[in-house]
Amino acid sequence: MLSFASIKGHDNAIKLLQKAILSQRISHAYLFVGPEGVGKEKVAYTFAAALNCLRRQGFEPCRQCISCQKIAAGNHPDFMVIDPQGKSIKIQQLRQLQRNLMYKHYEGHYRIILIREADAMTGEAANSFLKILEEPPLGTVFILLTTQVHRLPPTVVSRCQQVKFNPVPEKEIAEMLIKEGIPSVTARIAARLSEGRVSRAFRFAEEISTKRKEAIDYAQKILRADTVELFSIVSRLEQEENLQEMLELIALWFRDVMVWQESGEEKLVINNDQLEALKQVASSTTAARIGLEEVQRAQKLLRMNVNLRLVLENLVFGLRRLAVK
After folding, report:
1. Which terminus of the chain has fewer Cβ atoms in its 10 Å neighbourhood, N or C?
2. pLDDT digits (tens, 9 = 90+) for 173-197
3. Which CATH number goes with the domain that contains 282?
4. Are 122 and 88 in contact (CB under 8 A)?
């Protein structure tokens, strides 16, 4: 739904854009800066819809007119999206853009060019784009999305109005997910794992039910397995399609065990629908804080491309030593 009111966690960015709409002082170029998946593109589409809405009142797009519907569907003739071809945005794409800009926009108040991964422009492409920015066509608005603003030439950055997007607070993401009908426990876990990225949270929420059961199963089996079974668990973990996410869920389980061991406060437990199982683990293991640290250390080593098998063996056998004999 293309509506500023539906977007949470980016108040400062949205207020800046709303003020521009109401004052009709629209910059020729905006640079949206923030982590991947944090919501930059949704705000860009909403801003584009508001600029070209045929029945806008205030700053909100009506979502009903033909212009709003076309932008939402991605087929508005005056809304163009440029994506990297392969790993970069090439000079040929900017030359084609220049040719397109020679013509007047068709039916919108503005012609809007959305450039995803703007930092992927080659040097030639960036120089070509700079020339466009130096003499921007009348009625054209550029919206550049980037996660790495330092990779863009300072000359391009200085000619854009920067709009910063920070990670969305965990509580706000959880509330969003719950409003979409996602169970509270799943919403809290997805929000915790999302690192402030709304799109990532929704993806986690879809996958988390099965993945969470697998993670808890791994954690519990490790604590009671013999040596042969531990090696089997290592082999299974090696085959995980997204090992880091699985380790994150295992870490969350040990975090909850640690919280129960150190505080006994149910309200602080995230996996609170697994409280009885969690209490049993807490009573049969030594300091779960060490288990949490073991998992986090393994995650860090894997990001450093240390030998996968060796990291997992050290992790699994390290966790097994936490079980009370």
Report:
1. C
2. 999 899 889 988 889 889 988 888 8
3. 1.20.272
4. yes
